[in-house]
Amino acid sequence: MEVFVGQNVTECKSPLPTQDPGQMVTINGISFLKQTGLDAAVGSIFQSVVYSTLRDGVCVNLGFVLQSHDPSSFPTPPPVFDYATETALFDQIVGTYMWLASAPTVTQTSTPIESPTPTFTFTPVESPTPAATQTSTPVESPTSIVSPTATQITGAVLTGQVIAVKVVTVRLYDPDENFVAAVNANPDGTFRFEVAAGTYTIVATANGFLRIQGSITLADGDARAMPVITLLAGDIDDDNAIDQFDAMTIGMSYNTAEPPGADLNNDGIINVLDLELLAKNYRRTGPVVWE
Length: 291
What we know:
Distance between the termini: 31 Å
Low-confidence stretches: 102-111, 115-123, 127-153
Strand content: 35-45%
Strand order of the largest sheet: 9-12-11-14-16-20
Oligomer: single chain
Radius of gyration: 23 Å
Number of strands: 20
Shape: globular
């Protein structure tokens, strides 16, 4: 999936090559222009489906590309994938899209009800005349994106450093694999979470690299640091394996800048330098244990 955004646009269409003018579809109350396309390279077919929507001069394109290989290119031909089943997921993914409105406010009942475990901290808006309800603004954390289901009490601090030449995203999940929080690491790879006490799975990813994963238990007042770790370059298709398919992607994209995941050294062009990085980690699998 690729996302494209354009400003001051009057006509919102697919930036990817398409063979049809498209049709208007409504998903989750939002109108999209849905277009399909087909492209080919040696031994491979690229089938695209792009959803485009326009609001206030801003055009957003959600592009999905299915890359398939000619089964006859393999000594043991793999099964042919089911195009209808694969593309049926696209509508479901697009159904989660929404336009962001202005900053939300939280309305809280003025009846005082004591709670031993408050979920959010609010800064009340002063009013000269008391009202039945008051509008409050949630205090945002400057370092992490916190799910509304993550209870914030006194909490703990979790830090670390993940080294890669690309943007690293670090995520936390609870024992039931529910998303808790996420943060993009700083340019030097350092990151910081302020979360409630508990046990978490921590996962770090970067485009074109094997993901790393670990587990940590935090108590109230803890200040813990994960070990410094370096991501391994080469997992371009994000299947937790650095293999011939990743090398083939570099070969088919040689001297271009697409897909971005194949530009392993992040220098703006896919070439032999990226292939060398992949070769160092060839046949490595993930997720790499972070402990």
